[in-house]
Amino acid sequence: EAQVTQNPRYLITVTGKKLTVTCSQNMNHEYMSWYRQDPGLGLRQIYYSMNVEVTDKGDVPEGYKVSRKEKRNFPLILESPSPNQTSLYFCASKQEVRDTQYFGPGTRLTVL
Amino acid sequence: RKEVEQDPGPFNVPEGATVAFNCTYSNSASQSFFWYRQDCRKEPKLLMSVYSSGNEDGRFTAQLNRASQYISLLIRDSKLSDSATYLCAVNMYQANQAGTALIFGKGTTLSVSS
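Predict the joint structure of the above. Result:
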């Protein structure tokens, strides 16, 4: 089954404790993105990657890092999480820039 | 002007009603357009792509008006199961990116009641 998976689905952590949210897709898509979704603000892109070893900032990259060492994986790293990073995070992938995107199930992160 | 704008609603309609959502976009060079459906606390899922000639899928019709820079979604004979948030998405050129990015509206909430 074609899908985007994320782990963990739910995470409660404390300020400053480094964490990684994994994302994997099995559709051989070149383009992957991370979004956060907050009430009243909609979906905002954090980082994106157009191919292996090619990543770039989206609209709200501060406080986040990503890597793309393999085509299928695109982990999101929070080196020192803060409470304002409490949000619902979605990973997404698509084959080409103009295509529609397929979303992972989301990761609900709470930073205390 | 925001890049992609939608009326947030909520739209509260009875079963069987016809409801229409509009979404405006700022970049006239935008190339591709989509409607997504998002259920509470779930991921957005593609509902329909929007083509220049308009397209229909059962009770759902999507249209594109390039001159006025908006897309629309029409839902006929609303069902309780149509209750969700509907997001429009537009591929548009971003100055801070190497090419285009998919920009989402904030979503329109629909509640269908019996």
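The two ends of chain B are 38 Å apart (CA to CA).
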